[in-house]
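To the wet lab folks,

You asked to see what we're planning to order before we commit. Fair enough. Below is the target structure as tokens, and below that is the sequence we designed to fit it. If anything looks off to you, flag it before the synthesis order goes out.
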């Protein structure tokens, strides 16, 4: 039986199966589910927990031996097996079938690891146990679904967060649910029983480098050249991974291209892209000086940077990033921009 992340708590209130498969590429949700399973087992009398790893001279027979061994501490055991590659092989698949066929099996076996490919769920071993176990896949939350995830977190912590503030959190913590959950907990401590808007997020957010990247996007769109130079140098000083900056630049140029093509449907496209009203004017300003040909030039520069950074490496990637940022200013004088960079370094 397939159980999704948002169904786990409700499902754990039901009788537990003897086997749970927990696989996916999102570590925060996976750890959350493991903690939920452990808590449910503790409530239901599983007083002993054993752990194995399939990469450590592992033999599936050891699981059966543990299940059959008498224990002075507990009659029901929670047995966890970490299987990083999500591939049990012939022996593992046969073992799962044997485990599920054991009558009066009081123990729970939880096998967890990396993402399980769709092809695995169509194999014979998976089909043999599908109706006798739970399969819990955990996926990376897509950007368009992240606001819903944040809303659930806000409700759990009884937080009143404005849509604009929520949008900033989505930008800052996309791909980092663990950091996002930690930040929501901090907000609940700092701003209990009050509305949280953009200014509160700016004051409270702990990931200053990522927030600075967000500021860089706003200053790029607003054509604040000197501020852009200062931010790039600050990020370089903090040794922020350059790909985080180029990810943001790619996102902004993609947004601008879609908005340029939208024409009279600008507002509708903003809504589709989840661009809040308080940022619309920034994109309008940028589109007054950037046409599709210029945006394509920026995209090409970003693609070239990515190839060179990943293959040959760059002596100073931040300087190259500064030149790409200069393209957002439209017909930039690179020589003057270099002078501005050097002037700031000597200040």
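Sequence we intend to order:
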């Amino acid at each position: 039986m397939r159980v999704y992340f948002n169904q786990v708590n409700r499902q754990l209130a039901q009788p537990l199966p003897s086997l749970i498969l927990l696989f996916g590429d999102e570590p925060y949700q996976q750890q959350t589910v493991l903690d939920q399973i452990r808590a449910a087992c503790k409530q239901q009398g599983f007083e002993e927990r054993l752990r194995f790893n399939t990469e450590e001279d592992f033999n599936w027979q050891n699981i059966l031996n543990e299940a059959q061994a008498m224990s002075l501490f507990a009659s029901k055991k929670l047995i966890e097996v970490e299987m990083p590659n999500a591939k049990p092989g012939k022996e593992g698949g046969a073992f799962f079938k044997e485990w599920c066929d054991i009558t009066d099996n009081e123990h729970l076996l939880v096998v967890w690891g990396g993402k399980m490919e769709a092809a695995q769920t169509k194999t014979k071993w998976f089909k043999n146990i599908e109706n006798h176990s739970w399969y819990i896949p955990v996926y990376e939350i897509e950007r368009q679904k992240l606001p819903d995830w944040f809303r659930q977190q806000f409700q759990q912590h009884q937080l009143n967060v404005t849509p604009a503030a929520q949008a900033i959190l989505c930008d800052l913590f996309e791909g980092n649910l663990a950091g996002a959950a930690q930040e929501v907990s901090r907000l609940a401590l700092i701003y209990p029983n009050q509305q949280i808007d953009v200014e509160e997020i700016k004051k409270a957010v702990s990931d200053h480098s990522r927030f600075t990247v967000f500021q860089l996007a706003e200053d790029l769109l607003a054509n604040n050249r000197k501020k852009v130079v200062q931010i790039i140098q600050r990020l370089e000083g903090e040794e922020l991974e350059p790909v985080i900056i180029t990810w943001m630049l790619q996102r902004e140029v993609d947004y601008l291209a879609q908005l340029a093509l939208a024409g009279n449907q600008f507002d509708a496209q903003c809504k589709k892209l989840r661009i809040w009203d308080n940022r619309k004017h920034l994109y309008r300003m940028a589109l007054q000086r950037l046409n599709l040909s210029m945006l394509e030039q920026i995209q090409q520069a970003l693609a070239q940077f990515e190839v060179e950074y990943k293959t040959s490496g760059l002596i100073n990637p931040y300087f190259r990033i500064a030149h790409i940022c200069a393209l957002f200013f439209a017909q930039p004088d690179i020589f003057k921009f270099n002078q501005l960079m050097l002037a700031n370094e000597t200040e």
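Structural context that might help your review: Strands lie at 19-24, 48-53, 77-82, 108-113, 134-138, 160-161, 195-196. The chain has three domains: 5-138, 141-191, 207-340.

Thanks,
Computational group
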